[in-house]
Structures are given as C-alpha cells and as structure tokens.
Amino acid sequence: MQTPLQVNFKEMAPSSAIEADIRQRADLLERYFDRITSCRVVVEAQNRSHRQGRVYGCTIDLAVPGHEIAVGHESPKDHAHEDVHVAIRDAFAAASRRLQDHARRARGDVKMHQGPSKA
After folding, report:
1. Over the range 90-103, which residues count as b (16 or more CB within 10 Å of their CB) and which as e?
2. Distances (CA, A) of 13 to 16, 17, 99, 113, 116
3. Sheet containing 67-73: which strands, arranged edge to edge?
4. Which residues, 6+ apart, have CB-to-CB distance to 117 below 8 Å?
5. What is the reported pLDDT for 82?
6. I want to staple 56 with a disulfide (CB 3.0 to 4.6 A). Which of 20, 84, 99, 107 is the partner?
7. Positive or negative, the Cα torsion across 30, 36, 40, 45?
C-alpha cells in the first residue's frame, strides 16, 4: 500500500488485538491485487439491546488506481456480529471478493458480452 492503513473505532474503545487482526487481514488483501493505494477500516459498535449484546459493524474503503471499493457490511438479523471478530471477518471476506472481481476486470479476464447486432 502506498499510504499506511487507517483503523478507526466508533462507539467503542480502541483495541490493539482487534487492530492487529485488521492489519493482518489487510495485508492478505494485497495477494489478490497488489496495487492497493490505501485502505481505511472503521469498526463500530452499533445498537445495544437489553436482550442481546452489542452488535458490531465493519466498513472498509479500498482505493485502487482509478477506482474505489467500499464495503459496508451490515450486521445480520441473527446477531452473529455480537463478536467483533466475526464482523471483521465477514467484511474482509466481502472486500476480498470485490477486489478479486476488480482484478479480473483489470486483467481483462471478464468476458464482455456484445449487445444484439443491428442487421
């Protein structure tokens, strides 16, 4: 990455363990596309229910030459994201899929279908 990784925490105390997990996952994104220019990650503690615990969300903004890839992973209704590490894992999985799609398009591996011919 050309600029250092930015990690921000909203509505929760910063954690070095969570930041280390994010840094490790961000480093792995570069194996899908090595020209990432910047990466910004925001981990947010969302609503707090009196029945269930706090639900976490994770947003990832990647900048690549000519494009920006944004992943805002919303927490599912089954409260699987009561664990912050699960929310981070799911957001980085979505980011890696989008980054792989972008890399395929950049290499020209995606076949572009032509419209019907005008005969």
Report:
1. bbbebbbebbeebe
2. 10, 12, 29, 49, 56
3. 6-10, 38-48, 54-64, 67-73
4. none
5. 84
6. 84
7. negative
Q: Name the amino acid, one letter, at 117.
A: S
SS3 for 65? coil
Instruction: Measure CA of the first residue to CA of the last residue in the chain; give whole Å.
Output: 49
What is the identity of the amino acid at 40? Answer: R
- Given a contact cutoff of 8 angstroms between Cβ atoms, the answer to whether 80 and 51 are in contact is no
Q: What is the dihedral of CA 94, 99, 102, 108, to 10 degrees?
A: -120
Report pTM: 0.82
Q: Sign of dihedral through CA atoms 83, 9, 18, 39? A: positive
Strand partners, 73: 58
Spatial separation of the C-alpha atoms in residues 65 and 43, rounded to whole Å: 25
Domains, the chain, in order of start with CATH, read: 6-107 (3.30.160.100)
Let me know: does 19 contact 7? Beta carbons within 8 Å.
yes
